Model the fold of this input.
Amino acid sequence: MDYPSLLEQVVDATRPYLGSGRVADYIPALAEADRHRFGIALSTVDGQVHGTGDWTEPFSIQSISKVFTLTLALARDEGTLWRRVGREPSGTPFNSLVQLETEQGIPRNPFINAGALVVTDRLLTLADPDDALLDFLRGESGNREIQVDAEVARSEAEHGDRLAALTHFLASYGNLENPVTSVLEQYFGQCSVAMSCRDLAVAGTFLARQGIGSTGRRILPSRDVKRTNAVMLTCGTYDAAGEFAYRVGLPGKSGVGGGILAIVPGRCALCVFSPGLDTAGNSVAGVAALDAFTTLTGWSVF
Amino acid sequence: MDYPSLLEQVVDATRPYLGSGRVADYIPALAEADRHRFGIALSTVDGQVHGTGDWTEPFSIQSISKVFTLTLALARDEGTLWRRVGREPSGTPFNSLVQLETEQGIPRNPFINAGALVVTDRLLTLADPDDALLDFLRGESGNREIQVDAEVARSEAEHGDRLAALTHFLASYGNLENPVTSVLEQYFGQCSVAMSCRDLAVAGTFLARQGIGSTGRRILPSRDVKRTNAVMLTCGTYDAAGEFAYRVGLPGKSGVGGGILAIVPGRCALCVFSPGLDTAGNSVAGVAALDAFTTLTGWSVF
Amino acid sequence: MDYPSLLEQVVDATRPYLGSGRVADYIPALAEADRHRFGIALSTVDGQVHGTGDWTEPFSIQSISKVFTLTLALARDEGTLWRRVGREPSGTPFNSLVQLETEQGIPRNPFINAGALVVTDRLLTLADPDDALLDFLRGESGNREIQVDAEVARSEAEHGDRLAALTHFLASYGNLENPVTSVLEQYFGQCSVAMSCRDLAVAGTFLARQGIGSTGRRILPSRDVKRTNAVMLTCGTYDAAGEFAYRVGLPGKSGVGGGILAIVPGRCALCVFSPGLDTAGNSVAGVAALDAFTTLTGWSVF
Amino acid sequence: MDYPSLLEQVVDATRPYLGSGRVADYIPALAEADRHRFGIALSTVDGQVHGTGDWTEPFSIQSISKVFTLTLALARDEGTLWRRVGREPSGTPFNSLVQLETEQGIPRNPFINAGALVVTDRLLTLADPDDALLDFLRGESGNREIQVDAEVARSEAEHGDRLAALTHFLASYGNLENPVTSVLEQYFGQCSVAMSCRDLAVAGTFLARQGIGSTGRRILPSRDVKRTNAVMLTCGTYDAAGEFAYRVGLPGKSGVGGGILAIVPGRCALCVFSPGLDTAGNSVAGVAALDAFTTLTGWSVF
Done:
C-alpha cells in the first residue's frame, strides 16, 4: 500500500467539506478554532507513520480521551466497572440526564458523558490517573511534551454546570466512589489534553495490534481490545454511531475538538482532525475523510 | 360552626389511618419520626384558632415552605418570576430532572423541587431571605421561637446530591441568578424550618383572607392570593394533585415531614400533621383528615 | 346580579382577543370556522338563561363531550372505571402515546384522549351510548334538535390514525372491553355533536347544582359532581390546566371546536365559544372572556 | 478449517445454556416451543454447508425476516427509504411508541418494529412482496418448500394491537404509502415464514459474499451489503446490540422465534436456533453459541 498517495487521495476527496459545520462554542477556548484546518495521520501495526495537512498540530482531544481512560480502567479493574456502566448505544444526546434517571443511575455506555464520569471515578480509585493518562499517552506516542491545556481545563470547569449536574446525579444514585469535585476536576483535565493527529494515531495503534503497545508490551488482553473496538463502533460517535458505522464501517471515537480516532483491526489506527462539527458533534470533514478512506481501501470491518 | 366538636369528628374518622404509610427516610433526621403522631389545627379568617392532638408540636415543614417563599418572592417580584418557572402540573415525580431537560431548563411549577429552587434564587436576589422567611413566619404565626432545625439542614445538605444536580442543571440553562452553593444552602435552610400545625395554620391564614395578614397588613394582592391557591390546588401535592383535588377539593401544600397546609378561601386555613406518607409523598392520615373535613363541612371549593 | 349587563362587560373586555389564535385545521370541517365568531351563555342554578353574540349558533363540541360521557359512565359504573383511568394531570399533550407506554396502558385522566377512549368503552358496555349521550344532551338542554354532525364525524374518522393508534395501544394493554372499531366509531360520533353555547350551558348546569338536572331529577350524587368539577379543574383544559386555574379559577372543559364549558359551583354554568385557539388548544377569546368574568364577579373558586 | 469439528466444539460450549431463558409467549403458536431445542448451520462463501443439532427443522423466523425485506427494498428503492427511516440504535425496546412520538414519526432504524413497518410499506409499493420475499428465500436457500405458517400469521394478527397502534401512528405522521391493513397483513406474513437454520444461513450468505447470491447473480451492490451489515451490527439484536457486538462481534439479526442470523464478512453466514430468550428478546443459547464461535475462530470483525 502506498500510504502517502492514499492519504493524498483522501485529502482530495475531503476538500469539498473543509469549512463546513460549526465549531464547538460552549467554551471560548474551542470557539476560536479555524474550520479550515485539516489533518490526517495513519499509524500501522508494523510501525509506519504517515500524515498530511495539520497532522502534527496539537488540538483538544476532548472525548477521544474516553478511549484511553477506559483502556486504563479496564487494565486495572477486576470486574466491577461493567456493573456500574452499560455497553449499549444510548439513543439520546451525549450529555442527557434523562437516560440516567430512567435507568436509575447506570449510564448506558462509557462514551456518553455520564459513563465516562463513572470510568474516571473508577480510575481515580485504581490509579493516580493524572500521571496514568499523561504517562500512557506520552509513552505510547513517544511525545514527552503532551500536556493538559490549562486554559481549556479552566474554561471547561467554568462552563461545567451540566457536567456537575450529571456527576451529582450519579452520586445521588450511589454510583460514585470519589467526591464529586475530584471526579469533575479529573474529568476536565482529561478532556483538555492537547495532542496532534500523529500522536493520537500512534498512541491508539495498540487497538489495531490486538493490545500490544508501541514498545511491545501488552496493554490490554486481546479479548478486551476487541470489546473496546466493539463499544467504539456502537457508541463512539455520539448519537450518530449508526450513521458512522453505515458510512465508515470502523470503530471510531470522536471529540468536539474536531478529532476522530478510528481503528482498522489488524492494520492501522487513523486520526483525522478538522474543527467544523455536524449536529451530532462529529467533525464533518473528519467523517468525510474516513468515509473516503474506507471506500478507497475497502477496509471497512463489514 | 362548633369547631372543637368538628375537629374531634375529623380525628375519629382519621383514626383508622394512623400508623399507615412510610416515614421519609432519605435523611436520618426524618426517619426517626413516629407514624402514630397526629395533629390538626384550624385558624379562621376572624382570628379563632383551634386544634387537637399533636397540634403544638414542631415538625419539619419541608416543602410547605415553598408556599411561603413563593409568597415572599411574588410580593417583591416585578414580573420576571413567571418567565423562569411555569404554572402547570408536571406529571412527573417532584425531583425529576427529565422534565427540566425536555423543557430546556424551565421548571413546570414553583412547587416541584426545580421550580422551588428558582423561587429561592429569585428571593435571594430580592431580599435577604433567611431573615425574610423566618421573620415572616414568626410575625404571622406570633411565635418568635420558630427556628431552622440545624441538624435537619445539615442532614439535607449531606444527602443533597440530587438537589445539587437539579441546581447545576438549572444553572447550565442560565436559569439561576446566584451561585449554586448559595441557592442550595438557602433551600436546605427553608426546608428545615420546624413549626407546629398551629403555627402553620395561623401563618397561612392570609391565603384564606384574600391576602391580609395577622396584623391586618396586606401581604399579597387579592389577585395573587387566588393565583397562589390555584397553583396549590393544581400542583401542591406532588404527583397526586389530581387525587387530592378529587378527594379533598381544597388548595393544599404537603411536605415529606408529614404536614399539609390547606386553605378554605374566605373561611380558614388548616394544617394537619402525621409522618406516614403514601407513595406520592403525602401524609396518609393527613389526606384522610382533610377528606373527612370537607365531607363533614361541605367546604370543598367545588 | 344584572347578568345581561355583566355579559356585555365581558364582551367588551374580550373584544381585543377576537380573531386571535389559530383555528383547528386537522380536519377540513373545522378549518373553515371564522375566528371572529364569539358567543357566551350563562345558565343559573335557579333557571335563568342569558347570552350574547353567537350564543345560539351550533358548533362542534369536540372534547367538551368528555364531561358528559364521564357523567353518564359514572352514573352507571360501579367502581371499575377509576381502576382503568387515573385522575392526575398528564403534563403531556392531550394526544400523547408516551404517557400511556410509561404507565402501562392506564391513561392519566378521563379528559386526555386515551382516557376518554376508556370512558367511551366503559359507556359502550354500560349503555347504548349513542342514544344515551344525545338523549341526555337533548333532555337537559331542552333542545330536541341536537345532532351529530355527520360530515364532521366522517372527517374525524378519515383523519383518525392517531386515535386509532391510541385505541389499539389501549387494547394491547388489555384496557378495552369492546372492539377497537366500535370504540372509535362511538368516539368520533361524540366529538362531532353540534351544540350552541346556550345548549351547553343549560345542559351543564347540573354540575353547578350539585347534581340536580333541569327537570329536577338527580343526575349524579353531589359527591361525584364535586369530583367531576375537580377533574375538570386539574385536567380539563389540556396541558394548560394550571394556567386556566391561575387565570380563571373555575372548573372548565375546552374543545378544539372553540368552546369552553365552565362551572361556578352553586351559581351557574357558563359556555363561551370562539374558534381561534392558543398553542395548547384552548379558545383564546374564550379564556379571555372567562378571565374577565371571574375578575368582574370575583367568582373564582379560590 | 474443519467446520464439522468446529461446530461440535461450539455445541459443547453451548450445552450449559440449553433450557435457559423464556420462550416468547405473546402468541400461543410460539409459546409451545421447546427450550431445549438447538441447531446451528454454517454456509461459506465458497458453497460449503455444515450443521448440527436441529439445524434442518423449520422455526418461525420472525424479525430475521427484516434483513431480507430490507434487502429487497434497498435493491428496488431509489433513495427514498432512508428519508423515512433512520439508521441509529434506538435505546428503547423494539416495540416502543415513545421514540416515534419524540422523533415525529421517523423510526430510528429498519430493525425496530416501526422501522420494519416502513420497509414493508415501501416494499408493498415497489413489488408484490408476498411473492418477492418467498421467491427470494426459496431461490437463495434452494428450498422450494418454504412457506408462511398460516397459524402463526393468524395468531400474530389476533394479538397484533400494539403493531396496529404503531402502524396507525406511522400513518398519522404521513409515513405510510399503503393502507394500514395492507401493511399489517404483509408484515404478519413475513414474520410468520418458517425456515430452518440451514435455509437461513444459505439464504443469508450473499451478505458475506459482498452481495453475490447463490446462483452467482448480484443481489445488492457491495456498498449496500456493507451498510446492511453495519445496521445489523448496531441495531440487529433489539436493545442489546451493544452487548452482542461486545460478546460476539459480528453483524447479527435475531428473532423472538429463537433464531439468530450472523455474518462473517468474506467468510460465511451462520444461523443458530434455540427458543429460550433473554430479557432483550435474543436467544440465550444462540448468543452463547455465537460467542463460542468467535472465540474459537477469532473471526469477530474487531
